[in-house]
Amino acid sequence: MKEKKGSFSGSIGFVLAAAGSAVGVGNIWRFPYLCAKDGGGLFLLIYLVLVLTFGFVLLTTDVAIGRKTKKNALNAFAAICPKWKFLGYLTFLVPVLIMTYYSVIGGWITKYFVEYLVSGDNVPAQDGYFTSFITSKAAPIVFMLLFLALTAAVVYGGVEKGIEKVSSFIMPVLVVLIVAIAIFSLTLSAEGEDGTVRTGMQGLAIYLLPDFHGLTVKRFLEILLDAMSQLFFSLSVSMGIMVTYGSYVKDDVDLNKTTSQIEIFDTGVAFLAGMMILPAVYVFLGKEGMASGPSLIFISLPKVFSAMRGAGRIVAIAFFLMMGFAALTSCVSVMETLVANCMEVFHQTRKKMCGLIGVYSLVTAVLICLGYNVLYFELPLPNGSTGQLLDVMDYISNSFLMPFISLLTSILIGWVIGPDWIVGEVEKNGECFTREKLYRFMIKYVVPVVMLILFLTSTGLWNR
Ligand code: PFF
C-alpha cells in the first residue's frame, strides 16, 4: 500500500529540520577537538572557506536533486540518468552504516545526562569512568535502546508531525543553551598548578587566533583533509539525507536562501560549541587539555564540570541535554532516510518500514556496543590508524564512501547532465542563484579533482 508523500510545511520547517540533521555530535564533539588539534583560528579559517565553497555546492546539489526528482536517493539518481542508478545504492549505503553507531553514541550521551541528573557527585569525572561504561555489557545497550526508541518515535510521527515539530522545538532550545553555556565559559577563571591564573578569555584567544607554529605543506594538507571530512559529516551531505529532506520541500520554497541558512546554522553552532568548550577546558585543564582529541567530551569535560564545583552539575545537565537534542535530530534524519527509501522501494507504509528499520538499527547497534567487549578487535585501517567496530563503520562511511560519492555526483552533475539541471531547479520560481558562477565552476572542475585527492588520501591509496 502506498502512502501519500510527506512534506515540510514551509521554508522554516525545512531549515530547522535540515539544521537538526546537520547539527549533531559532529558540531559539538568533533569540531572543537579538531580545532584545538589543527591550529585554532587556522582550522576555523580553512573550514569557513570550505563551507562557503564545497559545503554550499554539495548541499545545494543534494537538496535540488531531492526536490526536483521528488525521490529518495535510491531512485533519484536513476531518475536523473538510468545508467547512474548504482550511485543511488552507494549513497544509500552511508546512512545504512551510520545508523549502526549513531544511536550508540546517542546512548552514551543519554547515560551522562541521566548520571548527572540522578547522582549528586561528579561521578563521570572519576578516572576510568568512560572506559568502564562503554566496555560494560548491559549499560551501553540499555541507554542505546532508550535513545533509539526516542528516535523511532519521532520518525514514526512522520515528516510534518514528527520531524518538523520536534526540530522546531529542539533547535531554538539548543541555540539558547549553547549560547548560555558559551557565555558562562568565557567568564571562568582559575589558578593553574604553576600559580598563574588562566581565564576563559585567554582560552578564547587560543581558540580564535591562527597558530602557524610548525606549519609545513604536509601539515597544511592534513588540516585541509580534517576540515574537509568534518564538513561532509557536519553538513550531512553526500549520504542521501539532504536528498530525502529535499524531496519533502515544496516547490515554492527559495532553495538559494534556505541552503545558505542551513550552512550558517550548522557553522554557527560548531563555532559556538568551540566557544563553549575550549575556554572552559583551557581554564581547568590547560593547553594540553584542549588537545585531548576524541576524549574531550566524555573524559575531559566531566573533569571541567567537577572543577567548577557547585555550578558544574547544572552546567553538565544543560550540556548533555543540549548534546542529546543535537544527536536526536541527527539520528532522526539518518533513520528517516532509511525508512523513506524503503517506503518508496517496497511500496510499504511508514509504520511497517519503521518496524523493519527499527529492528535493523537495534540489531546492528547491539553489535556495535558489543564491539567494546565480547566482539572487541583492533583492525588496521587503510589510513594508517586502527579501530574497533564503531571506528570501522565510521571509516567506511566517512573516509571512504562520502568523498567517493561526492566525486561521482560532481561528475554526473558537472559533466554528464550539466549544471543547468541544478541551476534551473534553484531558480525555478524566478529566484536569483547568488553563487551560480561559483557553483558551475566548482561542480565541474574543483569538486571532482579535490574529491579524488581526498578519496585517494583518506583510503591510503596515495601517500602524502
Ligand atoms: N551532521 C551530523 C553531525 O554533525 O553530527 C551527523 C550526521 C547526521 C551524520 C546524519 C550523518 C548523518 F547521516
From TrEMBL:
InterPro entries reported for this sequence: Na/ntran_symport (IPR000175), SNS_sf (IPR037272), YocR/YhdH-like (IPR047218)
Pfam family, one: SNF
Annotated Gene Ontology cellular component terms: membrane
Subcellular location: Membrane
Domain of life assignment: Bacteria
Membrane topology category: Multi-pass membrane protein
Keywords: Membrane, Transmembrane, Transmembrane helix, Transport
Transmembrane segments: 40-65, 86-109, 129-157, 169-188, 223-243, 264-285, 314-335, 356-375, 395-417, 438-462
Principal subcellular localization: membrane
NCBIfam families (UniProt xref): Na_transp (NF037979)
PANTHER family: TRANSPORTER
Name this protein carries in UniProt: Sodium-dependent transporter
Organism encoding this protein: Gallintestinimicrobium propionicum
